[in-house]
Amino acid sequence: MSQKEHSFASPGPAALGALAVACFAFFAILTGKVSHAAAPIVACWLIGGAVCQIIAGIIELKDHNISGGNVMLFFGAFFMLVSALSLSTKYGLHTAGLHFDSIIEGWCWLAAWGFLVLMTPCYLKAPRLLFWGLVLADIAVLFIALIDLKVTVLPLKLMATVAGWCLLGLGFIGLYLAGAIAINTTFGKTILSTTSPYMK
Q1: Does the first or last residue of the chain, that is N or C, have fewer Cβ atoms within 10 Å of its Cβ?
Q2: Cα angle, residue 54 at apex, residues 41 and 113 outer, rounded to 5°
Q3: Is the Cβ–Cβ distance between 154 and 147 less than 8 Å?
Q4: Is the alpha carbon torsion for 87, 136, 28, 24 positive or negative?
Q5: What is the mean pLDDT of each successive set of 10 residues along the chain, which is 200 residues long?
């Protein structure tokens, strides 16, 4: 959506930047770059990302962007806010030595995956990079759901690694598009391509 179609300046760059922060953090956890002891700190960053995503989603919906607005709200609520609360809760319960059953999260992630898959065709009318970013999210969320459900279609470590790298790829796409949108809008011309959509 162009700058002129917004009642506010486009919130896209902030939402994409927040998405990148979350994706980089999940990559680090899923691939073992940091231990699960980092969970409370990651939760703090995810709450910040949720604020950006939810505000951006509301602005996009106000401007009649049904797919972008709903996906931003969804990412803000579940990918970020719920993940922050879940990480903090599980870390606290584990530290206290209390039993909990995290398999339920797999069922929740499975529903989240279904939602994202159903939203993906809408992104054929978005920049191509954004479409492929959502495809990467689809793959990552499916593997996260399977990991939590303890369904090992592949070795557990491999599924976590694939999910992590998909999210890192999505994070880089988010950063690039955030920069491209802001730079192109500021200078009033295309300096960095945001890529054309597959469908008009």
Answers
A1: C
A2: 80
A3: no
A4: negative
A5: 64 95 97 94 96 96 93 95 95 93 95 97 96 98 96 94 98 97 95 94
